[in-house]
Design brief:
Elements (H helix, E strand, L loop, with lengths): L11 E4 L2 E4 L29 H17 L2 H6 L6 H56 L2 H5 L1 H7 L1 H20 L18
Antiparallel strand pairs: 1-2
Helix pairs in contact: 1-3
Length: 191
């Protein structure tokens, strides 16, 4: 039972009391073609398939493939040619399956990301004080480990930006605005 908290595979970590797996390194995540710019979803409103269409389409495509020469006798001479019809419906079916798989993976990844960050933030919280003490004793620590310094100081940076934004807003509103004071950022532990 590799996913039990008792037997962990090497690609699993414990985040608090929650077991979190690393993302699959073998999963293929295709990238859109170069230059692709997504359009507004509003442009496709009403065009995206209904669930009933998506579920019926693979069987319909298979049946069209089996029709062969009977296509014309079933749909008539005025119907669109069989090959373009089959190609269009097959492409629609494959894109719907791909989108559903991507959405399912995205939902799974969102949950796993949240669980992983919940545990990671607990760990980061415990690292802040020792790192601050080390940096106070030896300021070169901040330049030697700039990534750690940024990660462990993210809460402070967010608070500084928020204070600067409040000051800009107060300045824009004029002297009648509520004065902005330097408040120490509240850092509460992640539950």
């Amino acid at each position: 039972m590799p996913n039990s908290p008792i037997e962990k595979s090497p690609d699993e970590v414990t985040a608090g009391a929650v077991l979190v797996s690393h993302p699959s390194l073998t999963a293929a995540f295709p990238t859109p073609p170069a230059g692709f710019v997504p359009t507004s979803a509003a442009e496709y409103r009403g065009l995206l398939p209904k669930l009933a269409e998506v579920s019926a389409l693979p069987q319909a495509v298979d049946e069209l493939r089996l029709l062969g020469g009977d296509y014309v006798s079933l749909f008539g001479k005025t119907a669109a040619a069989a090959q373009p019809v089959l190609a269009a419906l097959d492409a629609a079916s494959q894109w719907s399956r791909s989108r559903r798989a991507a959405e399912e993976w995205a939902a799974y990844a969102r949950v796993q990301e949240g669980l992983a960050w919940k545990g990671a933030r607990r760990i980061v919280e415990g690292m802040k004080r020792p790192f601050d003490l080390a940096a106070a004793h030896d300021p070169s620590v901040l330049t030697s480990y700039p990534g750690l310094a940024r990660l462990l100081g993210v809460g402070k940076d967010i608070a500084k930006r928020a204070l600067a934004a409040r000051r800009r807003k107060a300045k824009a509103e004029g002297p009648s605005a509520t004065p902005v004071t330097d408040a120490k950022p509240i850092e509460k532990p992640i539950a």
